[in-house]
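Section 4.2 – Deliverable D4.2 (structural model, holo form)

The reporting period included a commitment to supply a predicted holo structure for the target in complex with zinc ion. Inputs used:
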Amino acid sequence: MAHTYLARDRTRGLDWAFKRLNDEIMELRMAVEKGKKREISAESADVFAWLTSVSNLVEIDLESASYEKYGNGCSKCQQIPCSCPMKRG
Ligand SMILES: [Zn+2]
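Output (structure tokens):
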């Protein structure tokens, strides 16, 4: 993603990347509500792409960060599957 977009992302800036990430999350929500798998798949990829852009702009390796936090299971109880008490709301 950085090879494809980082130069452009730097030009447009972090505020722009956050705005697009928010927009794509809303588009993903609408796609989920419609229940169309192909659209959900495309919007999920867009959310991931913009999250990656934000991470790249703040010089975080998203893959490493995700693995570091969740690579050994739940980030709180360290279990797979998570055995933390369920919270709602
Ligand atoms: Zn847990």
